[in-house]
Amino acid sequence: MLDDDDVVLITVPGWGNSGDKHWQTLWELTYPLARRVQQQDWLYPERGAWVAALDALVRDSCGRIVLAAHSLGCHTAVEWLRTVDLATQRRIKGVLLVAPPALPISEARARASGELPEGAALPAFSGFAQASAGCLPVPAVMVASQDDLFCDFATAEAMAALWGVRLVDAGRAGHMGSHAGLGSWAAGQLLLQRFILA
Q: Which residues cross the membrane (predicted)?
């Protein structure tokens, strides 16, 4: 049973899931009320299925919630927020959007990422043709870096404006995933704590 002050952390990984060294995984190890969205197919994402998986986990979670999304998980979270009723929106204390990729994801970027096993077919990224438009209905902040393979900073600025969220410049931190060397990413935890304690 959750206390009134308890907040559930739901992590929303991106394409390929988040590995052992990813900040999402490390946060889950230290936060007692952490849950991860699980997708049936991490390599060949389909937006409808990914949004449905996030929705199912939220509905299976009690109390207030913060979301910490990375990469394609950001677009999943943003799209999901457009589908939920007001009562569900009120349960969301905040959303942390980290390194959303520019859409559509080009073949060059996908192959350069290292996510595709050798010989694997390129994903269609079905449903992820463009970023959803409109201001988000819950408190949110977006973090982007200056040298992200998947998204140049000008595009990140445009997405933040499209969603009506504050953009935090992470400097030169790449795509901010497992290979970025962020560890438990203390700066990200501070952003998350502001939502939890609000």
A: none
Please give the pLDDT value at position 187.
Answer: 96
Residues of the chain with pLDDT under 50: 1
Strand partners, 11: 36, 68
pLDDT in tens, 68-79: 999 999 999 999
Q: Are strands 34-36 and 64-70 parallel, antiparallel or unpaired?
A: unpaired
In a domain, 190, yes or no: yes
3-class state of residue 179 by DSSP: helix
- Cα separation values, 133 from 66, 107, 120, 124, 162, Å: 21, 24, 32, 21, 6
Note whether residue 119 is domain-resident: no
Residue 58 sits at the vertex; the CA angle it makes with 75 and 14, to the nearest 5 degrees, is 30
**Cα separation, 116 vs 121, whole angstroms:** 8
